[in-house]
Specification:
The protein is an all-alpha fold. The protein contains 7 helices and 2 strands, in the order H-H-E-E-H-H-H-H-H. A two-stranded antiparallel ribbon has the order 1-2. Helix 3 (86-107) runs antiparallel to helix 4 (116-136), helix 4 crosses helix 7 and helix 6 runs antiparallel to helix 7 (188-202). The longest helix is centred in the middle third of the chain and has 22 residues, at 86-107.
């Protein structure tokens, strides 16, 4: 029997995502470094035992521009970062992500519950990271799932719950509209949508 398609809602994909999310919870509690190599490893686990449409094996965890992955991508008629610019965009993303997380780590003691203002600061970083990942679109497939994993990883690092579902993607025009805005470099709508999701999850007005 052939492996399920890497975009299909298969039991294999669901199990992979559950396994990755459990791992992320452990990493977040330990405040492990949050870098590109870690995100790549999540993607490899997420895509394990799935049909990658004839792409080379390094498409699992591999970024566009690497060997055999010279693809440009388009989402809703909008282009992701050009394949020739992905490496540079990711390098800048990693520097900013590490700096943002370090600032939050310094402000919020490990194991402490964040204040309302700190929750806003966390949401800003979650929204920025989610939107930038969508804009860059580093992987050939699974970027939305990866952006949602990254959002939940940042949230759990500061004792917030998993609040963005991985699959199926969140419903509603606002999430889709936020993704379109992200493709244009505007991450404010993503912050707004994530704030609503988190507030609903934790009963925050």
């Amino acid at each position: 029997m052939p492996p399920p398609h890497w975009d299909g809602d298969s039991p294999t994909l669901r199990q992979n995502l559950e396994r990755v999310l459990r791992r992320i919870g452990v990493e977040a509690a330990a405040r492990a470094p949050l870098k590109l190599a870690t995100i790549q490893s999540w993607h490899r686990e997420m895509m394990a035992d799935l049909d990658m449409e004839g792409l080379p094996p390094n498409a699992a965890g591999g970024f566009r521009g690497e060997a055999g992955l010279n693809y440009d991508v388009h989402v809703g008629g909008l282009s992701g970062v050009s394949v020739s610019q992905v490496t540079a965009a990711l390098a800048e993303f990693e520097v900013k992500l590490v700096a943002r997380v370090a600032k939050l780590d310094a402000a919020i003691a490990a194991g402490a519950l964040p204040t309302d203002q700190q929750i806003e600061d966390i949401l800003e970083t979650c929204g920025w990271a989610h939107a930038e990942w969508v804009r860059i679109h580093p992987f050939c497939n699974g970027n939305g799932r990866t952006a949602r994993l990254l959002t939940n990883a940042i949230a759990q690092r500061y004792r917030l719950p998993v609040f963005v579902r991985l699959r199926p993607r969140p419903e509603g025009n606002d999430y889709a509209a936020a993704g379109a805005a992200a493709m244009r470099g505007d991450w404010a709508p993503t912050v707004s949508v994530l704030r609503r999701y988190l507030n609903k999850k934790i009963g925050r007005p």
